[in-house]
Amino acid sequence: MKNRRYSPLAFLRHTAGLALLAGALTGCRTLPPPSAAVPAAPERAFFDGRTGARLDWTAVGSTLAEADVILVGEQHDNVAGHRLEAELADALLRQTPDAAIALEMFERDEQSFVDAYLDGRIAAATLVTLTESENWGGGKNTWMDWYQPIVDHVKARRATGAALIAANAPRAYVKLARLESLAALEQLPASDRALFQVPDLAVDDRAYRDRFLATMQQHSAPAQAGQPAPKKKSTAPAGTPPAPKIDPAAFLRAQQVWDATMAGSVLLARARHPKVMLFVGEFHVGFSGGTLARVRHGAPGARIATISILSSATPATFAAGDRDRADLVVYTRAP
């Protein structure tokens, strides 16, 4: 099922029950208002991620107007956040009709299906079936409400040059990196290599790696330091093999393949489009996440804007712990 294509953090949560983290715009200073009315302040609030200052939609548009690349980090199950993402995509495409929208949710080998839908050769339901996207994000039958609106905004501007980029690496290659090594990916033929990016180890993502490994270790540890693991009676049938041990380094390799491939997809799109907006899991973007680090490394002169969309019980209040998470931090009210 497609919802198994999460980052290693979400993979652990899904499979092991671990509670983890889960004119062109360059010439226009503001974005048009979203197609739907912006919710009242208590339901959704925008903040400058550096200062914590409250922003309005016009200020958000001014920030995006200066960017060549916009990386939008989502919490996959944030319903209100998905509505905002569709508004951002719509606003960007109304200003820059030949912009590219890139999605983590599609893999590179699915690009032909994506293009077939955009060109009107297959139906939306067929696209969802062929790409196994129906339950992407972890909910049941969530694609049509959460992600299809973004796809359809691109389709509406297909004639003016808009593109939808299948940005992610196919699962089989990510799994190969996790089970074997990055060297195993490098030995594959060129036809395979076009579907993923081998991480450039020269990229300085040390803080991101440390944060990733710390999170993995925290949520895979049997107990707090100095505390014995609780004794629980096993409910597994006799003879059931023990659960495999988590290898943080192996999952880091998988994460880096995702980051490198999505960053590479953004950079390829940037060579053909005036603006690129990527929708991706927030961990890949926030606090100089791995995808962001690799986009910066590959395009040091690019103007990059980052947006973290988070669910909050108190969306009108900026959380001190989110300072420097992204250029823009957006809170939506938790359901």
Task: Itemize the secondary structure elements and their pairings.
Blueprint (H helix, E strand, L loop, with lengths): L7 H9 L27 E5 L5 E2 L1 H9 L3 E6 L4 H17 L4 E8 L3 H8 L5 H7 L12 H4 L1 H9 L6 E6 L2 H9 L2 H5 L3 H4 L12 H15 L27 H23 L5 E6 L8 H9 L5 E9 L15 E6 L2
Parallel strand pairs: 3-6, 3-7, 4-5, 4-6, 7-8
Antiparallel strand pairs: 1-2, 1-8
Helix pairs in contact: 3-7, 4-5, 8-12, 12-13
Structure description:
With 335 residues, the protein is α/β, with parallel strands linked by helices. It has one domain: Rossmann fold (3-Layer(aba) Sandwich), CATH 3.40.50.11550. Helix content is 38%, strand content 14%. It is built from 13 helices and eight strands. An eight-stranded mixed beta sheet has the order 2-1-8-7-3-6-4-5, with helices on both faces. It is globular, with a radius of gyration of 20 Å.
What brief labels describe this structure?
alpha/beta; Rossmann fold; 8-stranded mixed sheet; globular
Total strands: the figure is: 8
Please state the average pLDDT score: 85
pLDDT < 50 stretches: 11-32, 34-41, 222-238
**CATH topology (level 3) name:** Rossmann fold
CATH class: Alpha Beta
Strand content: 5-15%
Summed up, what is this model?
By secondary structure, the protein is an alpha/beta fold.
